[in-house]
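Quick start: read one record
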Amino acid sequence: MKKYILLLFLTACGFQPMYTEQDTDIYVAPIAGINGIDLRNSLNAKFGGVRDSNAKYSLVVKLNEPMTRYKALETTGDATWQEISISASYTLSADGKQIARGSEKASESYTFVRYLVAANASYNNAVQNTIQVLSEKIGARVIAETYRYEQKNKTKDTAK
């Protein structure tokens, strides 16, 4: 019952979701590195598939290398936890002009063990999870900016 009341309230106030019948025609330029490939694939999936360079919007992302730091040490001085952090900057363009730019950072802690295979698996999982978080953050910002740009253009068109 509470869900229906909330839905009625939101429709009465003029609320409209950003995704409503809106095509996200966004080209994501290739991003350097293995992690860049994963980030680009994740962003393309978020935007509804791969677009060619003739898309209405163009997103250029610069992904920095992962940085690690120790989070916990045993009394022997051995590390037991590490944190991986990755940052990225992006520029969104439409109609040949820049409409938004920004940067995002994501991090995740992981267990650092003495066994090489397990340590590599922990690190790789942390990197993949961090890339997914970056994708969500950048994707949400980009969709919000394309929505804002579309609304601004609608206002200009109706004013003419």
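The domain at 20-159 is CATH 3.30.160.150 (Double Stranded RNA Binding Domain).
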